[in-house]
Amino acid sequence: MDDAGVKVQPGERPIEDGSHLLRARSDGLIELSSEQQDRSLRLRQRLGRSEWPEIRVLNLDDHAPARFLRTRTLENAGCVVQEVADAGEARAFAASDPPIRLALLDVGLPDGDGFEVCEHFKFHSPGTRVAIITSIYRSGSSRQQGIGVGADEYLLEPVPGHRLVRTVERLLTAAPSAAEAAVITTDGYGLILSLNAPAGKLLNLSARGAIGRSLLPFIGADRDRVTKDLQLAAAGQYVQTDLVLRPRERKPVTVEVDLDGGDHTSPTVEWTLRRV
User: Mean pLDDT over residues 147-170, rounded?
Assistant: First the structure.
């Protein structure tokens, strides 16, 4: 006999009790739900958003594999994700209850584009943060268009999972001013023209000591790659990467870097750096 008391003939496999299977599946779902709740709580505590019942994110992309990977990354971080595949579906969530805290918007859609959806969200739900994500519109002018319609962030595909999660946390944290980015303006060859206070602190240099110096010697083994990225930015491309920065008389630090030359007529490149 098997565990359920059913007589089994020699050589035969016992028939599993359906109730046992249902209980096992139910226990698995309860355990998964508990894990998700724990991740959600830890995320909200890190962001200083404990009063929110959840971090609800809209994931708009008509390309199913990219949408799937992004959703799994966000769920593992503690977000509750609503997937949609077109602009019409996304617009319906602009004034939803519970509210969407962050909208991740692909640009090229079958019935519109992410720029238009961003404008819709910012008009109907001003408190929703928006990140535009694109694999095609990679120029500095496209990024400026995205920021111009209200986007809080502009990301280039493929977006590494760690960068996606850090972006979500940065956009939704209760104290965004605490993580002000370091911003450095250089010419197309890396010569420093200006920098803000966080950038001076990051390089361990005063503004007077930094202006006129090349930024490239502060970039160690990544220098050749970043030099090529700088050339692309100076030619009008928007570039996102990570690199190891070597401040003066301090230990190296890993930073996320955005390089924006605006358009091909711009004589300068803006570097935005954030510690990882």
Answer: 96
CATH of domain 180-275: 3.30.450.20
Alpha-carbon span 276 to 265, nearest angstrom: 32
Cα distance from N-terminal residue to C-terminal residue, the chain: 59
pLDDT of residue 6: 44
Cβ atoms 104, 129 nearer than 8 A: no
Q: Are 276 and 242 in contact (CB under 8 A)?
A: yes
Which range (12-16, 83-87, 201-205, 247-251) has the least confidence? 12-16
255 contacts 243 by C-beta, under 8 angstroms: yes
* pLDDT of 117: 97
Total-model pTM:
0.83
Residue 272's CB is within 10 A of a number of other CB atoms, namely: 16
Picking from 149, 145, 113, 158, the residue whose alpha carbon sits closest to that of residue 130 is 149
Place of tokens 């956009």: 171
Are the C-beta atoms of residues 218 and 253 closer than 8 Å to each other?
no
Domain residue ranges of the chain, discontinuous segments joined by +: 30-176, 180-275
Is the distance from CB of 99 to CB of 75 less than 8 angstroms?
no
Does the domain made of 30-176 have the CATH classification 3.40.50.2300?
Answer: yes
Tell me if 41 sits within 8 A of 5, measured CB to CB.
no
Alpha helices (H) in the chain, listed in sequence order = 18-47, 64-77, 87-91, 114-124, 140-148, 161-172, 197-203, 207-210, 223-234
